[in-house]
Design brief:
Elements lengths: L8 H22 L2 H23 L6 H15 L4 H17 L4 H19 L4
Helix pairs in contact: 1-2, 1-5, 2-4, 2-5, 4-5
């Protein structure tokens, strides 16, 4: 970004999604499953915010994000998007309930990364 240019909200959310994915990997390698879980959820949440902003859609509450996920899946003809979003939500729940093992979170990390890639495809 050139000096003096402002980062748009969409760009900021996209950047944060990628940064949070990297932080989730780092936290998982460090053994902090709770932080890794929440960073994975955060990556999806910010990716969805970027996507919604690119469409002019509301995204401030959970129901709006869920609606956006369903519309994205329909538009892209990708039946895997909604189940992948449910995996991301389970990571968010893990932050509070601490039930996932390393193996579970590592598998979810791959699913969530691919979901973020799908959400941001064509947004950036």
């Amino acid at each position: 970004m050139a000096t003096g240019e402002m980062e748009s909200h969409r760009q900021k959310h996209s950047r944060l999604a990628w940064e949070l994915l990297g932080q989730a990997d780092h936290e998982l390698m460090a053994g902090d499953l709770l932080q890794s879980s929440e960073k994975l959820w955060g990556a999806v949440s910010h990716a969805l915010k970027a996507f919604c902003e690119s469409r002019g859609w509301r995204h401030g509450i959970d129901g709006q994000r869920e609606y956006a996920v369903k519309r994205l899946a329909e538009e892209r003809g990708d039946e895997g998007i909604v189940p992948s979003f449910k995996v991301a939500e389970s990571c968010h729940a893990n932050f509070y309930y601490d039930w996932m093992e390393v193996k579970d979170l590592d598998e979810n990390r791959v699913i969530v990364r691919r979901l973020v890639e799908k959400i941001l495809a064509g947004v950036e």
